[in-house]
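New to this. Please check this record:
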Amino acid sequence: MCLGVPGQIVEFLDDTHHLAKAEISGVRRAINVGLLVPDGLEVGDWVLIHVGFALSKIDEAEARRTTEFLKALGSDYDDELRQVMDSRIE
C-alpha cells in the first residue's frame, strides 16, 4: 500500500535541488520539495511525504489527524515509515 506521511519542514538544505529537511515521527530526513516550490514553503510548514517527496502542503490539524489514522493502520504505516527512513535524498 502506498501512503503519504505528514512531516514538518525544519530547514532548507539546497534551493537549487529543492531539498529540505523534514521531521517525520521524530526522525529528520532530507526530502525533495520541488513539487511544492510554486506554492511556496516555509520552515514550520507541514507536508505530506511519500518516499522522500513532498506531495502536498497540509495544516497542522490535518497532519495530526492523518498521523493518528495512519498509526491505526499498524503495519502499513510502519512499512511506509520504513520506506521514508530508508530513502536517501541528497
